[in-house]
Structure formats: structure tokens, C-alpha cells
Amino acid sequence: MNGEIESLVDTLSDSIARKGFETEMQSFVQMFSRYQSDKARGITLDWDKIRPAPAEQTVSYASLFREADSKNLKKLAVLKVNGGLGTSMGMKGAKSALEVKNGLTFLDLTVQQVQHLNTRMSIDVPLILMTSFKTYTETVEVIKKYANQPLRILTFNQSRYPRVFEDTMLPCPKTAEDDNRAWYPPGHGDLYASLFRSGVLDQLLSDGKEYLFVSNSDNLGAVVDPKILQHMIESESEFLMEVTNKTKGDLKGGTLVDYDGSLRLLELGQVPLKNVDDFKSIFNFRILNTNNLWINLKALKRVLDKEGLDLDIIEKHRYLDHGKPVIQLETAAGSAIKHFKKAHGVIVPRRRFLPVKNCADLLLVKSDIYKIENGHLIPNDHRPFQTTPTIKLSDDFKSIEQFQARFKTIPSIAELDHLTITGDVHFGRACELRGTVIVAATEGQRIDIPDGSVLENRLLAGYLNTIEL
User: Full-prediction pTM beyond 0.90?
Assistant: First the structure.
């Protein structure tokens, strides 16, 4: 592998580009070598050593009362993981540029949130965007519209690693500028090395920043919470992970565990096949990693300088366009928890975990269930239930294009409990859905819900047969 990587580096003639690429490839070689060494020695996850995170390793958000003041908030920076394309929703561009509500994108809402915090507290919290080679160009173009706004926005690119052929275990690309399909961003666990390598970590420390709040750009519930920051300071914790109670929709999500006496993040990709059902059981593992992380920057600098971060490697299998199988090695940001002093989880309310992973999630956040205040997504007062409705959409609504074509306007769902839509279904303007609504078009048929329709406890099936539930 070393010889092939050196050959890749030699394909760059520009000295500056070559130096940065060489550093990046050295990081890849270190990860790949560790992966091969572990496989050769038969080092695997020992399921018998795994237990749910003990109660003393988590605290309840409800027990936090004091809020950080402006003096401590001044030491904070906000980082959004902004490398995703939203391919699960049929997108080709940066997911953060998707319009989610009232004409505002994920990024618009984040900017409003941080600006409001800065204005209210008379502070200067910067917003940092970690992009990937897939989203960098678009992100840099998008943030130009914020140039005249009183907010510092920093960007840095995460690593670009070569995919590896499964049969030969050699890198797919032949040159440093090969097609993007031969490369991949190695997961959000790369943020630590990239933050350091880009110089942004040192810049934050020199600016007096001591704490970093990290979250995914598509999590609309991930806003700065002064109570959690104050808890981090008072508990002298170097690393906090926000976790929330699992639901049936979260069975594949990572969880905090005790592994042989050490607090660890456990992801589905690490679990032996025979133990997958045990991992997914809510009775076994009740909490979910939200990927909202609070990190002490001085501690991060210390760990990177003296110890290094050996994050758990997740092996993923993919296929190139011509069907040839490849391997890509990734890491998760939360797996760094094992390297920090007094690290623990904070069990937060579900409102702090509102990710938009598919068009059913998008329908929910676009609806009248929520309103926007200063970039924050807040439940509307007129909904009579505390829980959000369950929404299930068939693959006919999988892509953004399909979703937009089937809703002239988003229906009112303030009184909805459950919605299932399958098949070629189209909604008119100003529709209202209440109770349990199921709309199922048979294959080859189309159902059009007229403008202004009110469906309450209804099953619509076939062409347009309505049954009261």
C-alpha cells in the first residue's frame, strides 16, 4: 500500500497541493495499517464485554438548572458537520442548502441561531463548517450571501481518502485527481485531525475559545444550550455526548456502552452479525447518540499532541458503478469519548434531536407542527399532543423531486396521529389531516386529494375509495 500511495502523491506537481495531499495520505496509511494489523491479529469486538452505559456515566438534562453566562459563552465555538450530499433523498448537492421551512435552508437556520445568540448575549461565537470534497465548492459559494452579516464563518475541508478494491486491497485511484467516485470522506470522526491539520484548532485557541459544540447540519434540534455548557464547566468534563431515548425509528443508531470498564460509542457497523438483533433491542440499549458533542478544545489539543486519537474503525462495503466491490474505512466523532477525562453522556429531550434523513422527516418539519423563532424550530402551541405524529411514505416520495411534485402545499397535520401514504398519491392545496390517515394507491392508479380536503380517521384505497377508521 505504501508504494501505491507514494505513486499517488507523485502525480501532483504543485508543491503546496502536494504537501497537503501527502499529509492526508499519511493519515490514511496510518488508519489502513491499523485496520490490517487488527485483522491479522484477530482483534474484534468482544460482545460479551459490552454492557449498557451505567447510570453514573450519564446525567439527565432535567437535573441541569444553571445556565452559562456571557463570560463562558464567549469561550464557545459552534461546528456543523457539513459534508453530506443527501443522497438518500435523491440530492446531488450539499444537503445543508436544502430549503426546509419558510424558504430557509438548514444553513440559513443555523446562521440565524448563532446570530441571535451573539446579539442577545453581546458575544462573538463563530460558526465553523466542516465540508467534504463533495460539498466544499457549493458551500463556499452559498456562504457568500452572509458576507455582510455580523457573524464569523470559518470553513475547512475534511480528508479525502482513497477507496480500496476488496480483492487486491489496493487503492482505486491511479492519480490524485482521479474521478471523485474513487474517493470518499472518512466519516465525521475525521473532524479532529482535519480541524488540527487545517489550522482552525490553533486559531480558535488563540482567539480564546475553549469549548466546541459539534452537531450534524441536518439536525434542526441541535442548538446551543447554555445549561449543557455550564454543566460541562462545573463537572470539569472534557467531552460530553448528548444522548436521547431510543424509539422504534432509531434501532440502527449508535449508543453509549460500557466496554470492559470503559465508556465507548458502539455503532451498528461494529456489531458482529449474530448480535445485530441484540444491538437493535430497545430493552438492551435504551439511549441513542445524537452526535451533538461538546468538546474541551484545550483537552483536544493535548490529546492530539501527546496521545493521538485511535478512533474505532468502521469497515464499510460499497460498489463502484461497474459493480466492483470496494472498502472504505470510516470513524465516528463520538468514538473519541474514550480519550477524554470525565467524559459522559447527557440524556436530553427529543426536541434536541430532529434530524431530516428522509422526506417523511422533511414533511414533519415543513408542516404546522413547528414554527421558527430566531432560527429555532419550536413546537406550535396549537397541537393538542406532546408527541409528534408518525409519518410513513413509500418510495414514491423518496426523492426531493418526487416529494415536491406530490404536494402542492404541505397539509396541516396539527391534529394528526399517524399518516401512511403508498403509491402515486398527490395532494392539493390547503388540505388537513387528522387522527389516523392511510392513503394507498394501487399499482398503476393515481389518487388526487382535492384542494381543501379534510381527512380525519380515513383510509383511501385503490382509485379513490374512502373508508372511515
Answer: yes
